[in-house]
Amino acid sequence: MDAQYQQIAREIVAMCPAPFAHATLEASLGDGFSKVALTCVDAGGEHKSVPVSALAASNIDDALVELREAWPTKPPFSTCTFTLSPDGTFKFDVGYGD
User: Fold this and answer.
1) Fewest beta carbons within 10 Å, which of 3, 11, 40, 58?
2) Which residues contact 16 (CB under 8 A, 6 or more apart)?
């Protein structure tokens, strides 16, 4: 699963203006669709919503689908939040919807 986390991190870094204090990607996943939203926070604490290109959304969706398929619990998660720090550390939280 490391490759999928790394892919998501690369996409976030490519979209966030540097330098950033942290970035948060929120995603909702369903059968055949996903929605993603990215917020980057600068060193001053200002939050900026960043548009996610179609290519980046597709790459993120591919990584998330692979993570869901390998997820240890069933049913797999339906929402997730990926919070990335500039040093490459991240937090990945999941949610289970109806």
Assistant:
1) 3
2) 23, 38, 40, 50
